[in-house]
């Protein structure tokens, strides 16, 4: 229970002013933007390829299955991989955030924010 009370007494200003907080925000933004860019490139490549290189999607692989179909199904796997990497990276960021809160908790308990 003391841990909860200590967390509630932490000052948001103290957390925001800490240099490690800026590092956390930077890491989170970096991961988010990188994964967003990868997923958008993958997503918007379908209309671009279908518009400018439609013959590429018509190449037959096995029976009625063509490269376009495989590429579209691969979107689901790509989305899953992006979500998986996001979860892994944000788990690291969450651990760093917890470490930051723990480092500030003794100061909050003593009344020195």
Can you offer a commentary on this structure?
The two termini are about 20 Å apart. Strands 1-2 form a two-stranded antiparallel sheet. Helix 3 packs antiparallel against helix 5. The chain is about 85% helix and about 5% strand. It is mainly alpha-helical and about 110 residues long. The chain is elongated. The chain contains five helices and two strands. It has one domain (about 1-110).
Average pLDDT, to the nearest integer?
85
Strand content: under 5%
Query: What's the total helix number?
Result: 5
Number of domains: 1
The termini sit apart by 20 Å
The main sheet orders its strands as 1-2
Shape: elongated
Secondary structure category:
mainly alpha
Question: H/E element string?
Answer: HHHHEEH
- Give unreliable regions as ranges: none
- Largest beta-sheet details: 2 strands, antiparallel
Please give the radius of gyration in angstroms.
23 Å
Helix content: over 70%
Tally of DSSP β-strands:
2
């Amino acid at each position: 229970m003391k841990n909860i009370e200590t967390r509630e007494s932490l000052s948001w200003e103290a957390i925001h002013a800490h240099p490690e907080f800026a590092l956390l925000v930077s890491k989170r933004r970096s991961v988010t933007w990188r994964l967003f860019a990868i997923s958008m490139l993958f997503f918007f490549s379908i209309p671009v390829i279908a518009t400018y290189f439609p013959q590429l999607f018509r190449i037959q692989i096995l029976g009625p299955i063509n490269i376009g179909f495989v590429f579209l199904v691969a979107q689901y796997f790509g989305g899953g991989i992006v979500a998986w990497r996001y979860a892994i990276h944000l788990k690291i960021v969450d651990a760093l955030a917890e470490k930051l809160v723990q480092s500030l908790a003794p100061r909050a308990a003593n009344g020195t924010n």
